[in-house]
Records
---
Amino acid sequence: MKESWSNMMNRRILGSILALFLFASMLLPAPLLAQSGAACARDVTVQPGDTLTELASRYLGDPLAYNRIIAATNARARSDSTYTGITNEASIRIGWKLCVPAKLGPTSLAAPAETVPSSGGQVELAESDALTDTVVFDGQRLTIDYLRQQETPGSKIVIEETLAPGANYDRYLVSYQSEGLRIYSLMTIPQGEKPATGWPVIVFNHGYIPPEVYRTTERYVAYVDGFARAGYIVFRPDYRGHGFSDGEARGAYGTPDYVLDVMNAVASIKRHPDADPNRIGMWGHSMGGYITLRLMVATDDVKAGVIWAGVVASYPDLIERWNRRTTDIPNSARRWRTQLLDQYGAPAENPDFWNSISANSYLADLSGPLQIHHGTADETVPIEFSVKLFDQIKAVEGDAEIFTYLDDDHNIVASFDTAMARSVAFFDRTVKGEQ
């Protein structure tokens, strides 16, 4: 179970080489971006309440086309000072002059085919639920009200194995209790003098990795390292049925299992003597973003959340706009849709039920601010989901910001350093309380 020092060093060396290569590749799209935004069809002055996605929908017929407005405005701003360059997709100011390019032909927002990840690599490349044919889904257990009613006391965290340390932090394989199951987790603890109230915490929700190939110390190595180096306890639960964890991996979207495991993870880390129970943030990728959003509307334990390429759509949108065409995913992985539709009817026929199981219906109850990241070339989860979530949070006057990465993929590989720096800075401000 213990990771050898040589293996860890080899991965770090390879990771450094890959990071340098990807950093260089990040520079390539810039000319294309400028070129795509050279011509203005109209000038628009930002009015109160305007957002880039709303302007893109109004003038270009596609909310996801806001990147074209950014590209066009920034291109003009380089030669015309009456335009203001846009550096933050989530922030435009009243009175700014924007360049809106010509409207293109109709585009499709349908989600791309899902792919199945290989056993190698650092992070997950797909979303799926590995389920047995005997699973019967209970829609009432999917409701946000059900999550709010559950007792999730967690437990004392048990150190199962001490792993090789990181640059300025210690690493452990630990376990805790969730609904009578022993769930394993990776935990990092910063080295040095502990703050008087304890170290701030980031609960880390990984995306889908086939349970049969999942290993606690593999995948997301650079992601965990980025937060751990920044002075956080990182607590990365495996979920039931993953690694050495007890229980069956029945999936995220048809059962509350993984969300309950994370709720118990939060309760457990709050009890840990090195942790500050009042300074807990949460990070989630892909399926982990779905878990993060649900937990943040169901409880008030998390001060702030960051979601990368999240499955953060409402259930009606998951059914209607998330297209899983690959034949590599077993039919059992799709059965939650069929069962719920058979039992409760289509969303248009029974909106109350479908709203009751969608975290998007409860965004006014978010426990803290949310930062959203998504690559425009994501072929696993539609960027539409993140853009729509951002607009929905703003519609209820919530606190959110969004960053999109031109031509980047589901794992935001090309812009990893930028996205990680933004995520750490956000947590430093909202969880640590730094100015």
---
Amino acid sequence: MSSPSVTSNTYPYQNERTWTNSERTTARRVFDAALNRELHEIMQKARQKAEEIKEPADVWELERYLTRRRKEIDRKYEFRSSQLTRVFGTLLFEHRITEEELVGLGEDKLKAIRSCAKVLSEDAA
């Protein structure tokens, strides 16, 4: 019988952070809230665009808007431990979440999230 690995409680990849159960709970709450807020914005915009439909071509414009936004949402929101720092950094940069919502995450994760948001803001400038 082999003994359990000494590293069995760590991630298989050196630069991935481990997330405690408490941090995962906080992350899920923040993630879901941000996603729901963004989806509600999309719904409001889609309703507005639908009310403005006057020509057949306007239907396709609405379809293009919804397809574009669905792809953006699919790319942005990925609840995997290896992606959460990037996801939250992006959401913080876009002002879709606040640092106050992230209370409960470890300082190592907060630092990485802030760093990601800072890089995005520098790239946008």
---
Amino acid sequence: MRRTALLAYAFVLTVAGLAGAAPVWAHGTVGDYTFLEPIVADDANPKNEFDILRPQWTRSADGRNFSLGFSFEKTLVPAPDSMSNGAKGGGLVSVEIGSAWVYNSPKAGAPASGFNEMEILPKWAFWTVPEREFRLSIAAKLIVPTGNAAVEDQHHTQIGPELLWAKGFGQDLPEKGFLKYFRPFGIQGDFGYTPAVGGATLHEMFADNVLEYSLPYLSNNVKDIGLPWPVRNMYPYVEFNYDQLITGPSGQTFPQINVTPGLAFMNYYIELSVATQLAVNQATVPNNHATIIGLLDLFIDDIVPQVNWTPFK
């Protein structure tokens, strides 16, 4: 397990070297803070991006699971200049659509593969305070069972509200002394509830919180300590992930709690991220003996500037 994680981190560094040393731009930027795209949590920042590849491998008590997730987010309403201190990019309202191809290899029974359910997430950043590096968004998560029933997590449509947040601490801490090195910290996360429609099972509640440290912010806004590329574009982070069926089959409603430490590289065009997920409570252990997650995120408004077009002004 440790060897696999080290190889995954090495992969991030290698591919980052192929991506060029362009500086971090205005994707997910609130004030002076640019937030990373979380690897598990939903992002509070509406933007144009393509999570082209999100591989995940999990070994559980029942067998092994491998998935290749993907999602596409498009800004529908652009952000006013006041939301990002006049910086180019970003949105006020967006919609995200995603799914995944899954391969299950159980210890007992035949393997199964196919696409799982589709997730649709319209999102509105209704409160942004750039000078405090703070944003709140609301969303409506819709989960539709459009894939292969053999690999889907559930077989009923789910829909419910979600609250998302992002907060940088660069403007809340002193610019001098030791405390200035805490200014690159940021948090972001979500809380949601998605009851099933047309079924008595899988009324789900979830919450995620991300603690991240922006080395680009350290170099550009605190003190340039001479970090070499690609280290100066890195974000060490840890996610805390909670998921629970409030109503569901007997024996399956215990909370699933994981901690997800990882490392991300972000430049002008892409984010590369890798993490390992660790079970926190005993109820989660059977479903997570070992997990590795990766992410390749393309900032498509830089790669194809024409996608900055929005249907609503």
